[in-house]
TrEMBL record:
Residues 20-82 form the ATP synthase F1 complex delta/epsilon subunit N-terminal domain. Keywords: ATP synthesis, CF(1), Coiled coil. Signal peptide: none annotated. Pfam families: ATP-synt_DE_N. Residues 86-120 form a coiled coil. This is ATP synthase F1 complex delta/epsilon subunit N-terminal domain-containing protein. GO terms for biological process: proton motive force-driven ATP synthesis. One of its GO terms (cellular component) is proton-transporting ATP synthase complex.
Length: 135
C-alpha cells in the first residue's frame, strides 16, 4: 500500500512520522479522510480528535485544540498550538475533555477580568465627567 509522511508541529516541537496509510480529521464541513496520492488540500481542523493509521500498526489518535492542515506532494502537515498523541481512543478522549474544561475555565476567567476592567473604566470616565475633566 502507498503511504505518506505526517509532520506534526506545535509551538514546542515537531514530529515527523513516515509510512502513514490514512488520516481522518474534521473541519466545519464534517469528517474527511486522506490517503497517499490525495489531491492538495488545506483545511482548518476544529477542536477535537483526529486519527491516523501507520503502516502495519493500529490507529493512533491526536487530540488537537484546532489545527491548520496542509496536504501536498504526499506530505501532510498539521500546524497547531499543541498536540497530544495517544494509542488508546479512551485515553485520548478523556485528555481532550480535560483540555476543553481547562480552556473553558480560562475563557471564563478572561471574560470576568474584561468585565471588571470595563466597569472600572466606565466608573473612572463617570468620575472624570463629574469633575469636569474633558476628554
Amino acid at each position: 500500500m502507498r503511504t505518506f509522511a505526517l509532520c506534526l508541529r506545535d509551538t514546542h516541537r515537531c514530529e515527523e512520522l513516515k509510512g502513514i496509510e490514512s488520516f481522518v480529521g474534521a473541519d466545519d464541513t464534517g469528517s474527511f479522510a486522506i490517503r497517499a496520492g490525495h489531491a492538495p488540500l488545506i483545511a482548518a481542523l476544529g477542536f477535537g480528535l483526529a486519527r491516523f493509521k501507520p503502516e502495519d500498526a493500529a490507529w493512533r489518535y491526536l487530540a488537537l485544540p484546532g489545527a491548520v492542515l496542509n496536504f501536498a506532494d504526499n506530505r501532510l502537515e498539521l500546524l497547531t498550538r499543541r498536540f497530544y498523541l495517544y494509542d488508546d481512543y479512551r485515553i485520548a478522549a478523556a485528555a481532550l475533555r480535560e483540555e476543553l474544561e481547562t480552556e473553558e475555565r480560562t475563557l471564563a476567567e478572561t471574560r470576568a477580568s474584561i468585565r471588571a476592567l470595563e466597569q472600572h473604566m466606565l466608573k473612572r470616565l463617570w468620575q472624570m465627567r463629574r469633575e469636569g475633566i474633558k476628554l
